[in-house]
Amino acid sequence: MSVLLDHLPELWQGLVVTLQLTAASFLGAAVLGVIVTALRVSPVRVLRAIGTAYVETFQNLPLLVLLVLAFFGLPEIGVKAEPLTTAIVVVSVYEAAYVGEALRSGVNSVSKGQGEAARAIGLTFTQSLRHVILPQALRTVVQPLGNIAIALIMNTALAGAVSIVELTTAAKNVNLVEAQPIPIFVGAGIAYALLAALVGLVTGRLERRLVILR
């Protein structure tokens, strides 16, 4: 226990980076996920194909491979950014495939009559999606989005492979000095578990508040 207290500043800084990476990446994934969903449910076949290709591509590639490719490959073509910024962009693009699929399942849960009614009053596809379908779809996928956020928290540990000192890397660095892996990594594991529990608690309450009775 004392080893955790002795190195609390380093571990705390790692936790802060984990939180920054999680929050920024989830926000980016949410924005991109809405776009992916719009492509996936578009009446235009080409757009649906683009959306499908995006999802199939990023759901079938390891996040670690994408991080390494972006970190080492982008500077080679003249695209340079801070490591944390690169990690946020890569994780956002990767997680958007999962957010898009979760939202699409929510869109599919909205009755076709809702879309037909929207079109009957003159709304375009984009307006129907924005004002009628997506608000209802979001209310049905709060828990799946929470599960994606929890998975994202765990995935941030992979950013350590590209020089980001997040919580796991901070714990590893402390262990290199102290050689006490059990208390150090148990402490880091408890921190991840608490974050996951907090996300689960918040999404559980949101789901109960926003539930649609059919």
From TrEMBL:
Protein name: Glutamate transport system permease protein
InterPro entries: AA_ABC_transptr_permease_3TM, ArtM/GltK/GlnP/TcyL/YhdX-like, MetI-like, MetI-like_sf
GO cellular component term of the entry, any: ATP-binding cassette (ABC) transporter complex
Lineage start: Bacteria, Bacillati, Actinomycetota, Actinomycetes, Streptosporangiales
UniProt membrane topology term: Multi-pass membrane protein
Family named by the database record: Belongs to the binding-protein-dependent transport system permease family. HisMQ subfamily.
Organism: Nonomuraea muscovyensis
Subcellular location: Cell membrane
Pfam family, one: BPD_transp_1
